[in-house]
C-alpha cells in the first residue's frame, strides 16, 4: 500500500527536524521543506526529499507536489527568540506564510494541518497560578518583544479556523511553552538581547561543578515538555479522525524549581564533584506555568513517554552524539560572539 505523504514546513528548524524524523519513522513519506538553500544532505541521508522555498512567496509553492498530499505540519515562521523583531517580517512569515500554506492545501486537496501556537496568546492568565485551559479567550500583552509575534500567530490561527469552517480542514493547533531539546546553539534572544538560554546555562554550570542558586520559592512548578514527546504528538494528530481544535501541550504534571535543579545536577555534574545548591528565597520567584491537557488526553489518549529525568538523560546523550550535526552543525559553530 502506498504510504501517505506529509509535508513538514520548517523542517530544518529546532522542532521541524525532530517532527520529520518521527513521521518518517512512523511510516509516512516525508517531504521536508525549509528556507535554507541547503540541508547539507541531511534529509536525503534519512530517505526524505528536501525542498528549499520561501513560504512568503505563494509562487514558490509550485515547487511542491500538486496532488496526493495527506497532511501538512507547518512549523515555519520567524521567532523573536531567534532575532526576528521587525513587525513586517513577522506578519509576512507567520501570517502571510500560513495563508499561502492554506491556499496550497485547498488547491491540492490536502485537508489536515498541524500548527504551533504561542502560549503568549493567553499569558495574561498566568498570574492566576492555575493550569491554563486550551479554550481561554485571548489575553496577551500589547507591548514587549513578543507582542507583534503573538498578533501574527493569532491571525494565522484565525485563518486556519476559517479554512476549517469553510472547507472542512482538520486542524490541530498545539499551544506550548518552551520545548526542551538539545540544539548546538544554546543562545536565544530575550528582551531584544542575545543570551544563553537559562536551562542551558544551568547545565553548563552543573557540568563544570559550579554552584547553582535557586531563586525565590523553590516549590513553584513549571511545564517541561520534551521535543520527542511533541514530535510523537504531531504524528498522533496526523493519524487522528478528530476534527481537532486548540490543544495545550503538557505532561499532566509539572516540575518544581527544586526538582529541576536537583535533576540537572544529578545528570550533568561529574560524579563525586556535584554542584552546590544555594537557596536564595529573597530573590524573585520563578514564573509558574502549567497546561490543562484534559482535552489532549480525551481526544488522543495522550500520555508523555519521557519523565523529567528521562528528558535530561536523553538530552545529555544527544549533546554527546550530535545526531543533527549534518543539518545544524556542532556546538563549536555557535558562540555568544556570532549571530548563528
Characterization of the model:
By secondary structure, the protein is α/β, with parallel strands linked by helices. It has a domain of 219 residues: 3-Layer(aba) Sandwich (Rossmann fold), CATH 3.40.50.720. A 7-stranded parallel sheet has the order 3-2-1-4-5-6-13, sandwiched between helices. A two-stranded parallel sheet has the order 7-12. Strands 8-9 form a two-stranded antiparallel ribbon. Helix 1 crosses helix 6 and helix 3 runs parallel beside helix 4. The chain is globular and about 60 Å long. It starts with a strand and ends in a 12-residue tail after the last helix. The relative contact order is 0.14. The mean pLDDT is 93.
- In DSSP terms, counting alpha (H) and pi (I) runs of 4 or more, how many helices? 10
> Structural class per helix/strand content?
alpha/beta
- What value does the Rg take, in angstroms? 20 Å
Record the strand order, biggest sheet.
3-2-1-4-5-6-13
- N- to C-terminal distance: 43 Å
List low-pLDDT spans.
none
Beta-strand percentage?
A: 15-25%
Tell me what the CATH architecture of one domain is.
3-Layer(aba) Sandwich
Looking at the structure, the CATH topology of one domain is Rossmann fold
Please give the share of residues in helix: 25-40%
